[in-house]
Amino acid sequence: MTDEQEPPEHPTSLRGPSEGVPAKPKGEVPGVAADVAALVSGLKTTLTESFRPVVTTMYPEDKTPRAERYRGRHYLRRYDNGLERCIGCELCAAACPVGCILVIAAENTDEQRVSPGERYAKTYEINMLRCIFCGYCEEACPVQAIVLGPEYELSDTSREKFIYTKEKLLEPLPPDVQARLDAKPLSNPPHGLGRDSTRAQ
Amino acid sequence: MSGLYNDPVGHWVVVVVAMTLLLFVVLTATAYTVWFERVALGRIQRRPGPNRVGPAGLLQLAADGVKLAFKESFIPAETDKLIYVIAPTIGVAAAFLAWAVIPIGLWYNVQYWIADVNIGILLVFAASSLNVYAIVLGGYSSNNKYSLLGGLRSAAQLISYEMALGLSLVPTFMIVGSLRLRDIVQYTVSWGPYHGPLPLIILTPIGFVIYLIAATAETNRTPFDLPEAEQELIGGFLTEYSGLKFTMYYLAEYLNVITVSALATLLFFGGWYLWIVPPVLAFLLKVVLFLFLYIWLRGTFPRLRYDSLMRLGWKVLLPLAIANVIVTGIVLVAVQG
Q: Does residue A106 lie within any of the structural domains?
């Protein structure tokens, strides 16, 4: 660092009538005709733009497509046979940076089999007001039970409605499983399967 | 019709009915000018503009009006309350006053105007220059430095451009020999086989260009909207106004735009005469074209810097207007002997 610093070079002089105005290009000085031509070309641009199609998406009616990996509202997935994927390991709750996931696990029994593993999620709640949609829960899940879907319109009228319970998050039963349940009501429906199929009761 | 006009009571009945009608028509026209501007600006920027309220957004202004009318009538602290309240009314009253003498058309011997005075155009200018009081007093009384700056800018700008505006029309009066707006519209020439009304722009093209620029500045429209410069002065004199008082300013501004468009139509484009188009419709069509021109200018040009604005007014438009008057005078003397 030296004391003799060059004064910063400014592109234009900062005093005088042309203060802040870029220097005119050397050579021919544009006359009134050139200025008017510039104005006319501006008018032409705006007029031609006004005849081109409108680019606005009419939001509530039309929606822009979401990317395939868009992180919106969560879903709890099932296997094709209707069993829940979630094994209640709570890795998603551990991974969640804002702590918006609550998982309370319970043991599977032979009579009441909800997921193929040893345990299943008795309670699975996500506080959507806290969720930052980072997708870490999806990454942490060893069985791909929790995924983030494309829905992004999550507004609601009370804070309580933003606590998404397991019923809200869980995917519907696969149609073939649902059809089987509808056709032949089980005498002792397994927990988690019969509860969703209200018509089977 | 003329009998009713000559009867002292009948005359007043006709005038009052005409005034009521005109008030309604002009207010509606103002509302739809705002709609037209928003849609046209939207299209220029490839947006649809208002399109939700009513078919094609045509009721948007009704919704806006209701919203503005029900806003709290707020008066900021430390304002000059009387002037603060009166200022917007001056603007809107002056804007309406001009319409007393603006002739809209002559259709099947029905006169579509309120008063046919022999100093018509002078009255229009007298009324429209009152608008500066609305802006300056509004800016002064608001107790806000942005308002004050906007008001001061406006005073300087309106005074500068009023001279060019007035002088730009002098050649027209010299050619026609009358200040009565009906006479100017009905000015006819016999030139070769042609005998009939003539759009005066053919005779006064420079006057028209000066008028167009000066009128844009007079109505505080972009690119001369320095008094209300949203980006620099957060609205200028409008900053502290809201609700109905804001509506009045807004109304006055758009009324003035319609007024200068109507004047351009009357003074340079033959008013209500347009081939076989019915008179009032022809007038309307021409005014709408001028409104579109002003909107188009707003959608295209950026705001002038303050010194450029003053330079254009005093060093370009004013000398040009004076030269135009002198040259027209010489030509008139040479032609008419």
A: yes
